[in-house]
């Protein structure tokens, strides 16, 4: 035996010969009946010693390691010196075995007794987690309910102590409570142990039906506890034949999986006595009720001069208390510096790849500095959100209480805080304000330390506006505490806002640096991948740049070559004949035949050229017989009266006129000429003016119009390469990321919600997109890390992409998104059936879903076509379902032939974990062999800049022909060889002549044969560009509320999200508050969203969006002319660029010119300048008021804050109405300007903004 047995029983004789060691359960079950096992009442029905010679039929799953060191003598004298145990890594690692059947030894009902015990070593468990030692039911196995917890022994982490827990469910009562928790019953001990290297014996004994019988023992000490959830019960427990699992539950849920060592696990059908269970433990005396450590100011050593040092320690035991005996401060995670005791946002937490991750809350934050103080008494102010304490020179002078959980709407409305002195800034909603005194013995520097616990198991890791301030010597004010005494910074609104804005800039720089350092950990891997990609590109070279045009830009060379060849081909057919075919015949074929018989070959037949049509399809009959329409199978099928034969299928078929047109064409010889092209069709347009170019390239790169000063500088620059210099400068501008984020939000269906999840709600992975473009991440890496779902799902990691709430096949939704975004394969119809007009099948989509989910999947019943649909059909339905109901779909790559990317041995070089199907999916999409991937991305970028794609539509390539296939291939190879660098690709397009020509209005529906790209299409600004450019023109930032309904951080991000304060329009989201609650509103943000929605933006993206609604509508001029936001943005308000332009203008003419440069990026014509200057002339010389006449701008009285926590209170509606009233009023006008002249000036500004030219990209 491993140790002397603690059980006073004899094994059945048939087992003695099997093993002299601890007996595994399934061996017992093989040779002994339940009756024989119960012959000795103290015998366990299951016992595992996990010895190194143990023979067992337990099935292990995941990270299970045998023969690791267990509890050993002499520290644990009941064990041998070489005792072994098992180690579980979590993440679903477990042992499993099946229940023997009905009325087995593992079935318990009222009156039955159970004892569960084990030795455990807990390596890792987070606050709030409940991990399984052993349990029956709640496995997630098919055929069993989700609430079938027969019994379980668990460990839960509360306030930094690992406590034992007993959980089971009961049979629902007919007249029971409606609550979903009513049938759940959980007992948790009041005391526990600290996680670490020590082994602990835990045990729970219970008689079902008698809640008062529960007995808990930890390390030889009886522990008390409490019932919660459904409370104590005498109802009958759940009993079924689900499996018994050791170490996990819930399909292997990571947060329910044990991480650490296990030994001596056993189950008894007897409630063992307290004395028996206490005697099990022989080992170090463990203190279960640890007292608090003495409160002492931390020793931080030497601090840097003239700054405040911040250190962050994540994973504190509890947000409710400081450390207890036996606990220690977690290792420092991060260190930062700022200039004062002021903080409103943490630096970002990143994973090892540089992707946003959650802070492991609670986080201990220490702000420390050596602060100069004069001799005498000082009064300090501390504003904090949660449990905090303020130290000065070792003396505790102020402390606060823990943060409280937010209530679900019924929290009392609290009045705004009073300022500590008149005119000073008030504390934020639910920030605690505490005062303390300190007496300085002499004038010198004193060590000041603020310790705070931020976040927790049910709280967002958000410090709120935290500060420490000190009362001035004259008692009239408070100034922020800082190490540098040269400048006093008063605690007033203007100073604090300015300092927070500057701190935000410094924090972003700090985050950028840390993120990029972390991302470098993967650079060797990606460099090797890009070397392999370049090698592949060399072996598979791009088409050569057309010889006659090699002196041109490569893009222009390919365009010119096609134009020339099209002219030559067109000249071979009389113009009239070619026009008749392409205007009358080809549209019929294209509209009615090509969908199934273009690039797609339904029935083996293609009809997109005469040659393939003559070849026929599977029938062997020629579809078109030139000169004889009666021998043309296509015409016979078109004329057929049979629903089974008639083409096109469905509907009324072709009209008599259309049939006659085709018949006449065939009888005349079915000539299929090249498209008619005239020199006019391919004539290039002149280059745009410098003024138009700078506006266009600013909007296309950084998403906003240039400032008036930027336009002036560019127009005055006489350098021959100034356009290239400007492009280079803009490609290094951080605003590049702002512009591209919104595009990929649409394509990837980013859909966060501020309140409760709805259909296809995702996490806010916008931040992953933004960070990637900010760092110019290679695009293959961007896609790979997106698909791998890394980082925080609810605070900006790519894992947020993996969420699709209220969707019973979330990864099928993700499969559709990645296939359209990156492969140009449309799978929308394949959700429920095979695509009727595509080659793709339902199996294809669910194979992608299985690769995402890393296991086989089945189609949910909600995504199946009902069998009744196929009954009583006169002809075969276009809709087919080839996947059988309930048939598992394996994680296999379905698009090898379409993409050229094959799942073979060479793929392993592109992966860390070749066995991981999700990583394999990413590698198959982004490998250089995947011709479709690079070409789709190139096409998307081209379309974004030129206005039409080389392939249209960009998300659905099946059956589509590129207008310039050689150019597309050349750009794709160039993209690959330059490391999938989007900026390199952008520069290539932006420096071409085609991009810089005057825009024209070609439709996207032009046929590929007649698409010559002689100039870019004229494009309207996106909604984001309109809003952001209005702000640039007005010279004022976006001024909106924090995009959240829970600013107090009283809940987790996954339930109550914050998207921060938007300074660019892409940072908005759906502002709906679920039930149109009038009390939950963000009126300033709503006003901006109204403009964006009129221009096609959608806050809720339940599906990917390739093209927004772009047709003009009456709302667009309406919102620019009369919406609250546009009226306020055109006001000469205080601190605005418009007001400053009016104040500093030297003449009406100069002011009009400045306005045109600000708003339209060009100088006015004389016809535009004269009337507007005339309006401004009257009163211009006297427009400025003397300083003594300036009206003081008094701040508005602060309002109580309405959040999700208190929005149900009656007064919340009236507060919301007042907020809306103030939002409509907007900021006050600049007091320096005379009212009468200012109003005329604002009318002039408004009129220029409402020129239709403003919303168009030149």
UniProtKB/TrEMBL annotation:
Signal peptide: 1-39
Pfam families (UniProt xref): Laminin_G_3, PSCyt1, PSCyt2, PSD1
GO molecular function annotations of the record: electron transfer activity; heme binding
Ranges of residues in domain DUF1553: 918-1175
Residue ranges constituting the DUF1549 domain according to the UniProt record: 682-854
Record has Signal as a keyword: yes
Keywords: Signal
Keyword Signal: yes
Domain Cytochrome C Planctomycete-type: 593-649
Protein's UniProt name: Planctomycete cytochrome C
Lineage, highest ranks first: Bacteria, Pseudomonadati, Planctomycetota, Planctomycetia, Planctomycetales
């Amino acid at each position: 035996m491993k140790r002397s047995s603690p059980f006073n029983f004899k094994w059945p004789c048939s087992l003695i010969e099997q093993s002299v060691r601890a007996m595994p359960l399934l061996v017992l079950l093989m040779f002994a009946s339940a009756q024989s096992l119960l012959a000795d009442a103290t015998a366990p029905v299951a016992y595992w010693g996990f010895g190194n010679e143990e023979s067992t039929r337990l099935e292990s799953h995941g990270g299970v390691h045998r023969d690791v060191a267990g509890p050993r003598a002499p520290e644990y004298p009941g064990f041998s010196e070489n005792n072994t145990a098992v180690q579980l890594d979590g993440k679903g690692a477990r042992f499993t075995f099946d229940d023997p059947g009905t009325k087995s030894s593992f079935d318990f009902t009222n009156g039955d007794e159970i004892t569960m015990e084990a030795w455990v070593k807990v390596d890792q468990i987070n606050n709030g987690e409940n991990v399984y030692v052993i349990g029956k039911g709640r496995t997630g196995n098919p055929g069993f309910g989700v609430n079938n917890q027969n019994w379980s022994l668990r460990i839960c982490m509360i306030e930094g102590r690992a406590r034992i827990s007993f959980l089971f469910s009961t049979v629902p009562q007919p007249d029971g409570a409606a609550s979903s928790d009513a049938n759940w019953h959980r007992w948790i001990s009041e005391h526990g142990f600290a996680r670490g290297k020590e082994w602990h014996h835990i045990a729970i004994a219970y008689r079902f039906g008698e809640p008062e019988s529960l007995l808990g023992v930890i390390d030889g000490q009886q522990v008390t506890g409490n019932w919660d959830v459904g409370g104590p019960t005498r109802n009958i427990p759940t009993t079924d034949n689900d499996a018994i699992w050791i170490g996990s539950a819930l399909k292997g849920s990571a947060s329910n999986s044990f991480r650490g060592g296990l030994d001596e696990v056993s189950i008894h059908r007897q409630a063992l006595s307290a004395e028996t269970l206490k005697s099990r433990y022989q080992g170090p005396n463990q203190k279960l009720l640890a007292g608090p450590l003495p409160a002492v100011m931390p020793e931080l050593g030497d601090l840097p001069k003239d700054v405040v040092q911040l250190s962050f320690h994540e994973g504190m035991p509890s947000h409710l208390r400081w450390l207890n005996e036996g606990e220690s401060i977690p290792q420092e995670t991060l260190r930062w510096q700022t200039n004062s005791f002021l903080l409103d946002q943490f630096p970002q937490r990143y994973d090892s790849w540089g992707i946003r991750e959650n802070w492991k809350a609670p986080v201990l934050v220490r702000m420390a500095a050596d602060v100069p103080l004069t001799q005498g008494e000082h009064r300090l102010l501390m504003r904090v959100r949660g449990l905090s304490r303020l130290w000065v020179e070792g003396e505790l002078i102020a402390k606060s209480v823990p943060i409280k959980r937010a209530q679900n709407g019924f929290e009392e409305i609290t009045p705004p805080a009073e300022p500590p002195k008149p005119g000073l800034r008030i504390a934020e909603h639910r920030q605690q304000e505490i005062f303390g005194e300190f007496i300085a013995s002499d004038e010198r520097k004193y060590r000041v330390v603020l310790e705070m616990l931020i976040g927790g198991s049910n709280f967002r890791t958000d410090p709120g506006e935290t500060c420490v301030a000190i009362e001035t010597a004259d008692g009239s004010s408070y100034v922020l505490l800082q190490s540098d005494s040269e400048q006093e910074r008063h605690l007033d609104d203007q100073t604090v806002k300015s300092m927070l804005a500057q701190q935000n800039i410094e924090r972003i720089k700090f985050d950028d640096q840390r993120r990029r350092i972390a991302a470098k950990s993967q650079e060797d891997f990606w460099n090797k991948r890009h070397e392999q990609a370049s090698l592949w590109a060399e072996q598979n070279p791009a088409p050569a740049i057309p010889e006659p045009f090699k002196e041109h830009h490569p893009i222009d060379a390919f365009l010119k070559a096609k134009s020339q060849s099209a002219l030559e081909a067109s000249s071979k057919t009389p113009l009239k004949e070619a026009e008749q075919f392409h205007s009358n015949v080809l549209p019929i074929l294209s509209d009615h035949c090509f969908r199934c018989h273009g690039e797609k070959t339904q029935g083996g037949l293609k009809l997109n050229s005469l040659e393939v049509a003559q070849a026929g399809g599977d029938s062997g009959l020629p579809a078109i017989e030139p000169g004889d329409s009666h021998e043309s199978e296509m015409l016979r099928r078109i004329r057929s009266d049979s629903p089974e034969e008639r083409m096109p299928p469905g509907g009324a078929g072709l009209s008599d006129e259309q049939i006659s047109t085709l018949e006449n064409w065939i009888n005349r010889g079915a000539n299929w000429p090249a498209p008619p092209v005239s020199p006019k069709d391919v004539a290039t347009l002149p280059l745009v003016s410098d003024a138009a170019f700078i506006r266009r390239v600013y909007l296309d790169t950084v998403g906003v119009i240039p400032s008036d000063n930027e336009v002036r500088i560019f127009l005055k620059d006489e350098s021959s390469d100034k356009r290239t210099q400007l492009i280079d400068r803009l490609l290094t501008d951080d605003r590049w990321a702002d512009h591209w984020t919104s595009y990929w939000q649409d394509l990837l269906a980013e859909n966060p919600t501020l309140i409760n999840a709805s259909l296809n709600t995702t996490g806010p992975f916008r931040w992953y997109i933004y960070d990637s473009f900010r760092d110019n991440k290679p695009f293959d890496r961007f896609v790979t890390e997106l698909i791998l779902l890394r980082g925080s799902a609810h605070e900006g990691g790519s894992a947020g992409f993996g969420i699709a709430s209220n969707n019973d096949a979330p990864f099928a939704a993700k499969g559709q998104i990645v296939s359209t975004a990156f492969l140009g394969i449309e799978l929308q119809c394949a959700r429920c059936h095979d695509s009727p007009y595509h080659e793709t099948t339902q199996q294809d989509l669910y194979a992608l879903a299985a690769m995402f989910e890393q296991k086989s999947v089945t189609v949910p019943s909600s995504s199946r076509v009902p069998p009744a649909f196929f009954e009583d059909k006169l002809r075969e339905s276009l809709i087919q379902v080839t996947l059988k109901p309930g048939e598992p779909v394996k994680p296999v790559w379905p698009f090898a032939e379409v993409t050229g990317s094959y799942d073979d041995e060479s793929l392993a070089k592109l992966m860390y974990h070749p066995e991981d199907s999700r990583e394999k999916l990413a590698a198959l999409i982004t490998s250089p062999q995947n011709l479709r991937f690079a070409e789709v991305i190139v096409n998307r970028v081209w379309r974004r800049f030129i206005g039409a794609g080389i392939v249209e539509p960009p998300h659905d390539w099946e059956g589509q022909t590129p207008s310039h296939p050689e150019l597309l291939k050349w750009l794709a190879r160039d993209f690959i060889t330059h490391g999938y660098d989007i900026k390199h690709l952008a520069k290539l397009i932006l420096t071409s002549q085609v991009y810089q020509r005057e825009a024209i209005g070609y439709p996207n529906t032009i046929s590929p044969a007649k698409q010559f790209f002689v100039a870019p299409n004229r494009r309207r600004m996106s909604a984001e560009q309109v809003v952001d450019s209005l702000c640039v023109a007005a010279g004022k930032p976006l001024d909106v509320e924090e995009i959240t309904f829970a600013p107090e951080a009283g809940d987790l991000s996954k339930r109550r999200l914050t998207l921060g304060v938007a300074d660019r329009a892409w940072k908005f989201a759906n502002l709906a508050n679920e039930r149109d609650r009038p009390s939950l509103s963000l009126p300033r943000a709503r006003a901006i969203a109204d403009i964006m929605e009129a221009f096609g933006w959608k806050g809720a993206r339940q599906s990917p969006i390739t093209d927004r609604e772009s047709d003009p509508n009456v709302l667009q001029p309406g919102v620019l002319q009369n919406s609250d936001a546009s009226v306020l943005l055109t006001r000469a308000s205080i601190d605005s660029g418009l007001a400053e332009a009016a104040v500093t203008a030297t003449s009406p003419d100069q002011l009009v010119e400045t306005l045109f440069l600000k708003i339209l990026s060009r100088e006015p014509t004389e016809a535009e300048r004269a009337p507007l200057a005339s309006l401004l002339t009257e009163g211009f010389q006297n427009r400025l008021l003397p300083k003594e006449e300036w009206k003081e701008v008094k701040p508005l009285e602060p309002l109580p804050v309405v959040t999700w926590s208190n929005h149900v209170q009656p007064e919340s509606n009236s507060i919301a109405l007042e907020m809306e009233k103030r939002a409509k009023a907007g900021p006050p006008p600049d007091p320096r300007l005379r009212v009468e002249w200012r109003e005329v000036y604002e009318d002039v500004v408004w009129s220029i903004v409402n020129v239709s030219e403003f919303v168009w990209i030149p």
